[in-house]
Predict the structure.
Amino acid sequence: MGIWNQMFRAAGGNNTKKSGRAAGKNMRRDYSEVSFRCPYCFENIMAKGVAFRSMTAYTPQDLDELSEAEGERKKPYLMAADPLYEAFWRRYPGSKPEDGEKRRTYERHPVISPFDDRFLTNAKCRDGELQFLKDQNGFIHEVIDTEGRHSNVRICPHCHNRLPFEFGKYPIKYIPVVGITSSGKTVYLSQLLQNMKRVLFQAGLTTAGRCPEMEDFIRQYGIQKGGELPIGTLPSKLTPPVSINVKNNCDGSMYTLVFYDIAGENCVEAQQMEKYGPFIRNADGILMIVDPGQFTDLFPWATEDDAEENTIYSPDRVIEAMCTAFVSADNADGKATIPLALALSKSDLLKSGGLAGRGILEASSSVFRNIEYSAYMGKGFPYDDWRGTDASVRLLLKTGMTGTLLDNSLQQFFPLHSYFAISALNGKPRKISGEGEKKRYQMDTPPQAIRVEEPLLWLLYRMGILTPVRRAAKKG
């Protein structure tokens, strides 16, 4: 067996989900029996039974101004509070979504359903018929109500949250981004999404269609020179999922990627596990962000104020808690089959000469440079860069006890894992106000993300969406 095949097998190359690639490549033409999971409540949804919000909506005052007969005919379109929608967001106080600067109002609009007679169906219409429109692949994407108004606001029939664009049309991959509040998780996700089109293009993927959730996240948490850095996600808050449709430029396969911003505290504290458990349990891959300061014996810049928090929410504790609460019940041997990418954030702090302490990486290490995609033979997962990154970070962490404990936890609970080092800013932000949790920072130089895409590309490789590619041999 050739050395490339040996390395490829060692990396799990023969275990990629080939069925996922086949499902993505062969566009679904018959959606009569296709189902998918809601990105909010994870209940199963039949594509043919998806519900809609009507764009026709009347207030009681509107109906009072009409004749009795006309008011009775329009009564099915009366606006009212939606108990299913309200019940879902009651579990996550302060998290109910908004549309831009205006609070969304369509949550009070009538629900139109093909089959559920609790809502507006043809059987409940006074006259006329509802028209459910399909695209060329037979996918229901729009409804025309009996007043002649169109709506493409598709919602989950179980929790009534709005479904992303074309959600359920392609194979879906759920990717929670996990990290404690101080880990730099939200800053990382912001930079990843801001660079998503470029990142995917370099690996041979293209974003397809509208991505309003991504645009909303960037608008709220975007980073730029002179701007204040986003505040980390509060542990009690649920950030709406960010959905992106991608196309593989080589074989035409399509996928939907769904990202979640999950506070690591919610994976350790028992009272939060029930609410946030589904976002881990239903994951196809986990991306975990860890602040190097959590490894206090390796990197000495963690302050005494952080010591207690670093102990309570240490990376190995988060790993063990996720496995205990969300994985063990579904795996007889207590080991997850979900791939987990663990990335050290703020990698620019790890350069030798920058801070005293053992285990600091040499400044010449490849982890401090972006991937040179032009050096590879074709588009795909940059395999050689990944091997170097994983080996460097793995050796670094094992030089201290906290890193060794983390590695042991991953080996026992998430054996399909890999290590990465990323920098979302590649520079030191300046504190502009506040203390403790109220500290605010801004960047005085343009942020320059380093290798933020590498953990994601590895997950896409493990899911069977990307194929590995090798560096071209150097001439001479």
User: Anything to note?
Assistant: Residues 124 and 269 are 46 Å apart (CA to CA).
